[in-house]
Amino acid sequence: MQAQPAKTTDSTAVQLRSLTTQNLDAVAAIHVAAQPDDTITLLGLETVRRYYEWQMIGPHSASAFGAFIRDKCVGFFFGGVFRGSTSGFLRENRLYLAFRLLTHPWLIRRASFRNHVLFAVRLLWKSARRHPPSFAKPAPPQSFGILALNVSPSFQRKGVGKLLMQQAEEIARKHSFYGMHLTIPVQNENALAFCQHLGWEKYPAEDEWHGQLTKTLQ
Length: 218
Known about the structure:
Structural class: alpha+beta
Largest sheet: 8 strands, mixed
Strand order of the largest sheet: 1-2-3-4-5-6-8-7
Number of strands: 8
Strand content: 15-25%
CATH topology: Aminopeptidase
Radius of gyration: 17 Å
CATH architecture: 3-Layer(aba) Sandwich
CATH superfamily: Gcn5-related N-acetyltransferase (GNAT)
Order of helices and strands: EEHHHEEHHHEHEHEE
Distance between the termini: 21 Å
Helix content: 25-40%
CATH class: Alpha Beta
Number of helices: 8
């Protein structure tokens, strides 16, 4: 997807710009600060940087935008159509990740971390059994996925997240997506309230909810 022009709001002095690999250190630092208990955060800043690097350079059709105050990045989002966002990252960094696990064995004591590791192993196993081991071409995109949206803690509740979400929606509309989707932790009530305030709805609306949210674009 083509980069969108920068956008500035006079009230918050926040400028939205396309991110490049030169911004990855700032992106990783924001993720770590905003999600200190996230699985990739526990594996270290470099792991987080590699994760977002893959989202930039992998075979995706996606956009990455940052919110800047002067030259300081204070928030970001990655959104679009992702092909192997997790499996590709695991495969490209399998040796590095294995080393991180070996040097951080105490993390296995965390039940949530063990679950993520088991999920990663199953994902790599399925990916390795595909022949040929390449990314299948997806069907024409219909729903724009928000892979990540994070704001530095010191700049939260100041409208930065809303600006980023509005930018994501603008890009989705420009590229004729019929809707958007994202997944948040079920227990994150603040994220749920934020999204619902912007018109997002739980999916499915009934039955057991696992953190999926959708928004229809008119």
